[in-house]
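README, section 4: Worked example with a bound small molecule

Sections 1 through 3 covered apo chains. Here we extend the same pipeline to holo records, where the ligand is supplied as SMILES alongside the sequence. The molecule in this example is adenosine-5'-diphosphate. Nothing else about the input changes; the structure line simply encodes the ligand pose together with the chain.
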Amino acid sequence: MTKEQIIVTSAQMRDIEGRIFAAGMPVAALMEKVAGLISDRLQVIIPKGRCVGILVGPGHNGGDALVVARELHFRGYQVWIYQPFAKLKELTNQHFQYAQNLGISCFQELDKLPNCDFLVDGLFGFGLEREITDPIASAINHFNDWNKPIFSIDLPSGLHTDTGEVLGTAIRATHTFCLGLWKQGLLQEQALEYIGQAKLIDFDIPLADIHAVLGEVPKIKRITKTTVIQTLPLPRPPVTHKYKAGHLLLICGSERYAGGAILTGLGARSSGVGMLSIAVPESIKPLLVSHLPEALIIGCPETETGAISQLKLPERTDLSSFTAIACGPGLTKDATPIVEQVINSEVPLILDADALNILAELGTISTLQKRQNTTILTPHTGEFHRLFPDIDFQDRVKAVQTAASQTGAVVLLKGARTAISNPQGVVWINPESTPALARGGSGDVLTGLMGGILAQVVNKQVNIENVVATAAWWHSQAGILAAKERTELGVDAFTLTQYLMRILCDM
Ligand SMILES: NC(=O)C1=CN([C@@H]2O[C@H](COP(=O)(O)OP(=O)(O)OC[C@H]3O[C@@H](n4cnc5c(N)ncnc54)[C@H](O)[C@@H]3O)[C@@H](O)[C@H]2O)[C@@H](O)CC1
Ligand SMILES: Nc1ncnc2c1ncn2[C@@H]1O[C@H](COP(=O)(O)OP(=O)(O)O)[C@@H](O)[C@H]1O
Ligand SMILES: [K+]
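The generated complex, written as structure tokens:
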């Protein structure tokens, strides 16, 4: 477990800090240390001599900001302070007195503020406890309108530390220096527009204190490369054969959505799976063969609408011949009997896209209760609402935990910050992605990729949520790399499949 993987709520952070202070670390010494690290970072980014405005709140977030103000003052920056509060915490107040005595300009009124090149936001950190109201709310809106770079200490002031919700209004930071451990709110979708580039400032919190508060295995974690390296079946055993490296069955596609089947197949190809079989309607079989010559394409009888009407597997094969099944992309809802059939099988199963829409109509919870083996659901927001209309969506982490616990499945909720939960509430959040992936077909690629990884490792005592997390990370990293080379407009789903292998090569 690395610090980069850990996520905390404000209550947990307070408990961890409390242990450090109880063990003897002076509060003021920790504030010096944290603010020193922030000042060092700022100095690397911003040339000396520039003018910096420091926004100071009443608590220790404001205290951190005041120490930064003092440091930057001595390091040759032109500093001014905006501090509109009548009452400050004691340590914060001492730093404020000292800054004034040093001759740093301090202001309480907005209209007196001089121009500046950048702002440091130390109004509120994880101690924000209620909606921000005027005059502070107006001040925050005013600073946002300046369109200067804003560096937020710990988190942009105004964001709820756990849910990322905007409490009244919030600073729109260009950079966030998260202190010590990642706050949960910074991984919530609704916070993304406010955070800018986020970096963790490690101030040496002892691991023992983290474990004492979060347990030996923390429940909510960020996916990192470490998770992925531990999960992927690399290196391959020197002596193996194709059926030992997993046999994945994809059930996907229709006359209407033939491309979805190709993309799912290409995603699976990149996983390195030993054998790939793809069941599609008979009429699109030649198309699939031409795109995926290595796969076994199973042409199935079809409905009048061009959907699979019956799974016609090759001789001496039934569903139990496969190590894993991924079902859904491009099926259309006319393939309902097929989805029922795979749900009734014992094989580890991923349900995506139309398979999820069909599941919602069959009754999500009652239908999945019958399943004994691994089930993975990969809804986007719309599919999630159809599957779980009664789950409150305000906090996506809680929503995905509830969905997993109600169904016994591992649930991956897609989005800018994909969240994954197992039925026991163990959560992975994907910390990085790109809006370049918000394009038709990129989810199909994910389903194929995940299916291929699952088929290779499912019999090897892995945690299923780690498999799902690995696929999500790999998929989004490929998107990020592709966007870097081709812009955010250049990442169509086919192109995305071409970048998947590059991520492994660079690891
Ligand atoms: N002790 C230290 O030196 C350390 C300080 N840290 C900093 O301390 C912060 C937490 O400090 P605090 O617990 O003092 O909390 P904050 O500084 O986040 O804010 C709490 C203060 O704001 C007031 N407040 C809360 N909501 C308000 C609202 N809506 N309108 C007006 N006032 C409001 C509270 O009454 C309290 O005075 C962290 O975010 C971080 O920046 C730690 O991260 C690192 C160690
Ligand atoms: N704004 C975004 N930022 C990052 N990733 C995104 C964003 N929007 C969508 N994605 C990712 O793109 C994929 C889209 O999947 P999905 O909605 O199923 O598309 P489709 O069904 O067309 O393939 C998901 O992996 C999702 O997490
Ligand atoms: K802040």
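What to look for in the output: The first helix runs from residue 10 to 22. The CA atoms of residues 47 and 228 lie 38 Å apart.

Section 5 describes how to batch many such records.
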